[in-house]
């Protein structure tokens, strides 16, 4: 069996989750604090991938970042990165596609913290950044974990976006979900079964771990 | 010395509340803000601390301008040297008692302050516990200790004792009196509890609809004239009974019911639920040593 697609899926999921964490924390924090008129607009944009067909997202991505397009050509010229039919493009699209799964738990976690906690830290002369790192984030660990796990799992389960902008280039853009589709088309049911079962077990394990940790079951067990 | 002259329009139930406070507070004074909910007591503390920005006016503390709307001066809360005890205590749940205090401590401050405070407020045994495992009274003490390790000049207390039972309140009032004297603080308290106010404060500001309507010593303000009794207690009337020609009022003082004789004329202005002061002038008290 070719392990390439499984390896590529995990690589994509890890890279996407890591970048999302870097993007999601400041964004979620901003959304939880701001009273700006921009907030509803930003919230809408962040949540769009939840309701938009992945093909729509992939289509516009293709239009924007194709090498013959202005933006795509510019990025290629200045950064030497091709975003269409390449792994970096896949990561960028996945980040946009899984954005709500990271931002929303962080946003709601930080919003649910009592304001007085942050104000107490402010009165102690701590910067906003230090308050977020030492008071905000450590008190929303379950939300952070939910965000990480859901983004990871959602990226593993991606199909439409990848197909639109990545195609199916072995070891470059041919992730497990695409591989399954192609194996089935080629009537190669045994391989399709193996990939499917692996994804099924992975998804089950990942979600179960969220509920175990957030439900406090593990702590109870270790005590 | 605090010179407070601030105005702010606040959104309130069914419209706006125009808050206007103009008051001078001497260094070392204990001032209590008293009045019904929603008259702007907490907002006054928040504006003094910098957590809320006044629309107009100025705040000057010992010759330093903290806020001046006309000169666009607005000192950050962290630079105002204020200890603030929140109504919900605002302890950081992810840190132990000691870590809470260490986080609050000034880097440039007195290194021994933390130990001094831990001893004074008797928290040494609790220092490795997380806030979630503490009782209400313990949380209150930690919140007070955390405010003190910041070495503030001004201590702001927003109804810190309202969630506690009477016995615990009494004990914590003693801690408050002790730290107010020991650290030479200027203290502002928001409170609804008359016995607490008369026990703790030098000056009471009675607020109504965003304004100070009366101010003075607790007995001046709350009784509207001075009482020169040897014994004074405040309490709540539970019931009034008729006994022959006189009346007997049952008054709850702390957790004891005291029976007080009253004339028909006095009773005419009283009803159960009223806050009263019971004073006694000429009588021979007996004193007994308690075996504890």
Overview of the molecule:
The complex is a heterodimer of chains A (223) and B (292). Chain A has a single domain (4-222), classed as MetI-like (MetI-like fold), CATH 1.10.3720.10. Chain A is an all-alpha fold and 223 residues long. In chain A, 78% of the residues lie in helices and 0% in strands. With 292 residues, chain B is of the alpha/beta class. Chain B folds into 2 domains: 2-223, P-loop containing nucleotide triphosphate hydrolases (Rossmann fold); 231-280, RNA polymerase II/Efflux pump adaptor protein, barrel-sandwich hybrid domain (OB fold (Dihydrolipoamide Acetyltransferase, E2P), Beta Barrel). Chain B is built from 8 helices and 15 strands. In chain B, the strands form 3 sheets. In chain B, strands 7-8-9-3-10-11 form a 6-stranded mixed sheet, with helices on both faces. In chain B, strand 8 (154-158), helix 5 and strand 9 (186-190) form a beta-alpha-beta unit. In chain B, helix 2 packs parallel to helix 4 (136-148) and helix 4 runs parallel beside helix 5. The radius of gyration of chain B is 21 Å and the shape is globular. The N and C termini of chain B lie far apart (43 Å). Chain A binds chain B through residues 114, 116-117, 119-126, 134-135, 138-139, and chain B through 49-51, 76-80, 82, 84, 86-88, 90, 92-94, 103-104, 106, 146, 150.
Keywords for this structure?
heterodimer, A: 223 residues, MetI-like fold, 12 helices, B: 292 residues, alpha/beta, Rossmann fold, OB fold (Dihydrolipoamide Acetyltransferase, E2P)
Strand portion of chain B: 25-35%
End-to-end CA span of chain A: 42 Å
Q: Give the N-to-C terminal Cα separation of chain B.
A: 43 Å
Tell me the total number of β-strands of chain A. Answer: 0
Order of helices and strands of chain B: EEEHEEEEHHHEHEHEEHEEEHE
Q: What would the CATH topology of the largest domain in chain B be?
A: Rossmann fold
**What's the architecture of the largest domain in chain B in CATH terms?**
3-Layer(aba) Sandwich
CATH superfamily of the largest domain in chain B: P-loop containing nucleotide triphosphate hydrolases
Q: Spatial order of the strands in the main sheet of chain B?
A: 7-8-9-3-10-11
Report Rg of chain B: 21 Å
The amount of helix of chain B comes to: 10-25%
């Amino acid at each position: 069996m070719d392990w390439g697609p499984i390896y590529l899926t995990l690589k994509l999921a890890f890279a996407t989750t890591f970048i999302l964490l870097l993007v999601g924390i400041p964004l979620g924090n901003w959304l939880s604090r701001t009273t700006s008129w921009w907030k509803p607009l930003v919230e809408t944009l962040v949540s769009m991938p939840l309701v938009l067909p992945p093909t729509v997202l992939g289509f516009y991505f293709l239009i924007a970042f194709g090498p013959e397009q202005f933006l795509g050509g510019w990025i290629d010229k200045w950064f030497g990165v091709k975003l269409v039919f390449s792994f970096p493009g896949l990561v960028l699209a996945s980040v946009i596609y899984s954005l709500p799964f990271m931002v929303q738990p962080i946003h709601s976690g930080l919003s649910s913290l009592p304001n007085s906690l942050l104000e107490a830290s402010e009165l102690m002369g701590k910067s906003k950044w230090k308050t977020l790192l030492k008071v905000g984030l450590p008190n929303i660990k379950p939300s952070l974990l939910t965000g990480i796990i859901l983004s990871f799992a959602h990226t593993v389960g991606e199909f439409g976006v990848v197909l639109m902008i990545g195609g199916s280039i072995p070891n470059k853009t041919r992730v497990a979900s695409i591989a399954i589709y192609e194996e089935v088309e080629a009537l190669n049911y045994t391989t399709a079964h193996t990939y499917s079962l692996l994804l099924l077990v992975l998804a089950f394990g990942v979600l179960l771990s969220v509920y175990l940790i957030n439900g406090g079951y593990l702590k109870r067990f270790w005590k | 010395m605090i010179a407070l002259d601030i105005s702010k329009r606040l959104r309130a139930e069914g419209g706006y509340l125009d808050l206007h406070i103009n008051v001078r507070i001497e260094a070392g004074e204990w001032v209590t803000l008293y009045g019904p909910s929603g008259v702007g007591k907490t907002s006054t503390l928040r504006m003094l601390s910098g957590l809320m920005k006044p629309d107009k006016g100025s705040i000057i503390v010992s010759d330093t301008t903290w806020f001046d709307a006309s000169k666009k001066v607005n000192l950050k809360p962290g630079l105002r040297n204020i200890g603030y005890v929140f109504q919900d205590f605002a302890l950081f749940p992810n840190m132990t008692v000691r870590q809470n205090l260490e986080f609050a401590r000034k880097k440039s401050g007195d290194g021994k302050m933390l130990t001094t405070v831990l001893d004074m407020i008797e928290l040494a045994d609790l220092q490795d516990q997380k806030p979630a495992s503490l009782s209400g009274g313990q949380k209150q003490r930690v919140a007070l200790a955390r405010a003190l390790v910041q070495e503030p000049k001004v201590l702001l207390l927003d109804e810190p004792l309202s969630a506690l039972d009477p016995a615990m309140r009494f004990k914590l009032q003693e801690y408050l009196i002790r730290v107010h004297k020991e650290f030479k603080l200027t203290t502002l308290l928001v409170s609804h509890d008359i016995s607490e106010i008369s026990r703790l404060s030098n000056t009471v500001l009675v607020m109504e609809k965003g304004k100070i309507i009366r101010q003075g010593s607790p007995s001046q303000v709350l009784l509207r004239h001075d009482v020169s009794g040897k014994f004074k207690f405040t309490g709540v009337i539970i019931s009034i009974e008729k006994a022959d020609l006189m009346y007997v009022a049952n008054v709850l003082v702390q957790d004891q019911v005291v029976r007080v004789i009253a004339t028909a004329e006095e009773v005419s202005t009283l009803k159960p639920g009223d806050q009263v002061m019971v004073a006694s002038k000429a009588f021979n008290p007996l004193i007994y040593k308690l075996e504890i």
